[in-house]
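Long-time lurker, first post. I've been practising inverse folding by hand and with some scripts of my own, and I keep getting stuck on stretches where the structure tokens seem ambiguous. Below is the full token string for one chain I'm working on. Before anyone asks, I'm not after the true native sequence, just a reasonable design that respects the backbone. If someone could post their per-position residues I'd love to compare against what I wrote down in my notebook.
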């Protein structure tokens, strides 16, 4: 089941009219760096369908670029026993689309990289390091690079990334 999507200008109108509850499913450090005013922070790993029992309001989830929000919407719709009654939307393009539309952003300071970029840097560094070890020390280090590749394949197929979950719990992301 594909979740409903909404564009940034429509979401702005809904927020101005008090028709919607906006939930930011990113990690705390990402929310601290930049956020949509009025958004409630609830990282996707902590969000459940029971949290969404709000009568008469539309619920919009957002993340950085839209994919975590889409995954969270799909999971919540599958989890919810009242999926038909749940008016759930995902902000298409996430906060990046909101910024591109020239809409207001709240910034509380901080300079933490978005979680997806932290994961990319970590995996890239590990792949480079263990490839060099495999070349100069022992080919057995290729097993680590294969393991990292399997993790990336799993993340791509399922939308679940163990490294992202782990990095989301790091002190700099709180």
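-- Answer (accepted) --
I ran through it position by position. Result:
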């Amino acid at each position: 089941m594909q979740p409903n999507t909404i564009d940034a200008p429509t979401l702005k109108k809904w927020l101005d009219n008090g028709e919607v509850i906006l939930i930011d499913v990113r990690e705390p450090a990402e929310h601290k760096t930049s956020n949509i005013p009025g958004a409630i922070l609830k990282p996707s790993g902590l969000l459940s369908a029971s949290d969404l029992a709000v009568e008469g309001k539309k619920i919009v989830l957002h993340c950085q670029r839209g994919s975590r929000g889409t995954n969270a919407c799909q999971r919540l719709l599958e989890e919810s026993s009242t999926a038909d009654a749940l008016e759930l939307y995902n902000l298409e393009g996430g906060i990046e689309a909101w910024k591109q539309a020239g809409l207001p952003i709240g910034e509380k300071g901080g300079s933490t990289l978005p979680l997806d970029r932290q994961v990319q840097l970590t995996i890239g560094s590990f792949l480079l390091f263990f490839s060099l070890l495999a070349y100069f020390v022992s080919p057995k280090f290729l097993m680590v690079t294969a393991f990292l590749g399997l993790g990336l394949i799993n993340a791509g197929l399922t939308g679940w990334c163990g490294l992202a979950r782990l990095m989301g719990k790091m002190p700099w992301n709180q």
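A couple of notes from the structure itself: DSSP finds seven helices and five strands in the chain. Residues 115-173 form one domain. Happy to go over any region you disagree with.
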